[in-house]
């Protein structure tokens, strides 16, 4: 590795004081399992022991070992002064004066302009949540839960009332999924602890899942989106090959766990239908038990207890489980299409060490705004703005979007936006393209 890019040319060992001043070349050596350093605001921190105590999970902070983590640090933490207290004991020195603030030649001007944009958003009050918006959102979830019960209570358990109940429950579950996402990103309350409490209530009691499990996965995704070995959302355990690089690598190695040239077809059989009712449900329960996360387990069991208590009198025990399975089946389709339409068609590759703006825009795209798209996707149609400012309340994405577009235009960063139907179609098209790349490499390389 070099000394950190063109700004560091001419830097010699004479200007580095190992006891307090470090070069990027030295810092980049500390990216091992038992030796992790990172840089925030030109200050160097040894996080080797802290990673296991990091509230967001050890992997998300570990993914920045040997790198500048300033932009990620600012993006994830709404109260920077509070978090800096935890950094003080980890301090080991600073970057040498002759070193650039960013590693590996990342664009300093782009990073500086993004900081200006962030300060502008703060001055505009865009990090302040609307209590009315989130109260109404929670209310409409609870109303659908009540209507689902009222439907079978007053209309009975015939096919039509049962289907209506299932649709109401699936919709409430999907909308609760977007709400827990808000609390998980600390974007509702000013105090983090209230976001954490609300997160456990919504994801645990209203959905039957685990807040800690979600945090562990989702923050990694935000830190390094669409990066193999760092983003768990693109770890498809050999079921799918993604992007342009992985299919060729698998093909050259003659790896054929499944016929990947047909993955755009079997995606409809094992992707949207099974992710939540099978893979996520098993993984969540297994994770809570393995990590002895009894608090989240109790929250999760409270959901299942409430569900059975509500519907067993109408459908019986096994009938209620059947209803829940169908609800999860529908919810899973909803979740997969919304979450993958912003990422799967985008660049998926190994680490390229880009700056925050470039890395997030390479991995994300937006869907056109409309009242339906906002509601249907939980405002994740503004995926770009969400990834750039994960703690920003979602009802403010539309306000910052024009400024983000201007910044992207200034730095020639592609800002991609498309209609909802095109986004769904591109998921299938990208899977087909990756499958064809795999087959070509498998047969001819």
From TrEMBL:
Taxonomy, superkingdom: Eukaryota
Domain Cytochrome b5 heme-binding: 19-96
Name the UniProt record assigns to this protein: Cytochrome b5 heme-binding domain-containing protein
Main location class: membrane
PROSITE patterns documented for this protein: CYTOCHROME_B5_2
Pfam families with a match to the protein in the record: Cyt-b5, FA_desaturase
Presence of the UniProt keyword Ribosomal protein in the record: no
Keywords associated with the record: Fatty acid biosynthesis, Fatty acid metabolism, Lipid biosynthesis, Lipid metabolism, Membrane, Oxidoreductase, Transmembrane, Transmembrane helix
Membrane association type: Multi-pass membrane protein
InterPro entries to which the protein is assigned, alphabetical: Cyt_B5-like_heme/steroid-bd, Cyt_B5-like_heme/steroid_sf, FA_desaturase_dom, Fatty_acid_desaturase
SMART domains for this protein: Cyt-b5
A GO BP annotation: unsaturated fatty acid biosynthetic process
GO MF term set: oxidoreductase activity, acting on paired donors, with oxidation of a pair of donors resulting in the reduction of molecular oxygen to two molecules of water
Transmembrane feature ranges: 148-170, 266-284, 304-327
Gene Ontology cellular component terms for the protein in this record: membrane
Pathway membership, UniProt: Lipid metabolism; polyunsaturated fatty acid biosynthesis
Source organism: Leptobrachium leishanense (Leishan spiny toad)
Subcellular location: Membrane
Family: Belongs to the fatty acid desaturase type 1 family.
